[in-house]
Write a structure and sequence with these properties.
- There is one protein chain.
- The chain is mainly α and about 100 residues long.
- It has four helices and no strands.
- The longest helix has 13 residues.
- The termini are far apart.
């Protein structure tokens, strides 16, 4: 069975849009509030999940297999955040430049 994040989660909403294309969107399924819990439940054998690539380190930590889904690709927005009132670290500006250069168009 497919397990997921709750329907109000923005990432899950993007996943649901793609699942709709194959007739599996908005099915009733077990949901968990965090990626960590979702991945732990996959490791415990409760089902399979669709997660963004940045969850890879958690998948490795739990020893679950991760396979890249290439069709259809789902774009996600990324944001750099800092504590209010703090100046952006110089290293963060450099990281953002490298990150943007490495992300496919």
């Amino acid at each position: 069975p497919l397990i997921s994040l709750p329907p109000d989660n923005k990432i899950q909403q993007a996943i649901e849009a793609r699942l709709d294309e194959i007739g599996r969107g908005h099915e009733e399924r077990q949901t968990f509030r965090s990626f960590e819990t979702l991945i732990a439940m996959v490791a415990a054998g409760m089902g399979t999940a669709v997660v963004p690539s940045y969850a890879r380190s958690a998948c490795l930590r739990y020893g679950v297999e991760m396979a890249r889904l290439t069709q259809p690709a789902t774009p996600l927005s990324f944001y750099g955040i800092t504590k209010r009132g703090r100046a952006e670290a110089e290293t963060m500006a450099e990281f953002i430049k490298v990150f943007i250069a490495s992300v496919p168009a």
